[in-house]
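Re: the pair you flagged

First of the two:
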Amino acid sequence: MARIFYRPSPHTQSKRTKGDSSSSVWEFHRYFWRSRSEKMSLVWLEALLPLGIIGGMLCVMGNAQYYIHRAAHGRPKHVGNDEWDVAMERRDKKLMEKVAAAQD
């Protein structure tokens, strides 16, 4: 791993007094890490675009299934339809046909 050493230019370096404990190297590191943490604080926003695309496509696919099924069968899909429910639908349909035939 390469190390980067910061050597401040003598022309840009401020004059330090004898009691001054801050060094230009320390200021550089403080600036470097602060700017990096500020950049990293909004990295999670980069995930919103793919998340929005994936969520949008899931919604589009679900609605497409709903509208295709409704167009093909004339009513929304019955969720959780097992054999008993299918048998009862057939029975109800036959009973309604008998009632309609008896009224004619």
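Second of the two:
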Amino acid sequence: MACFRLSKSICEEMEQIIANFWWQKGYGKREIHWCSWNKLCKLKECGGLGYRNLAKFNLALLAKEVKQRLAESLSTPFGLSGPLETNGSKKEIRDLEQK
């Protein structure tokens, strides 16, 4: 989930599968929903069970990935994350880095 954004429908379908796991007795047999899914997704400190809203969690992971990639690109010369690919010598590359 950290590399691409999942559509809202996929996240809802995955949450439905998780909910069915907890609320079904068996295949096709429904159980009583004692509380809403939104309440289950609340933090444990706030009275929920700490399940994650998958759409929001996916966006948070994407934001974290962007932050890490920006930090990497700003910390390397010329914004490159790998070794400089040129036909020049190492001395020429050091000269370019100093400019």
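Residues 54-75 form the longest helix (22 residues).

-B.
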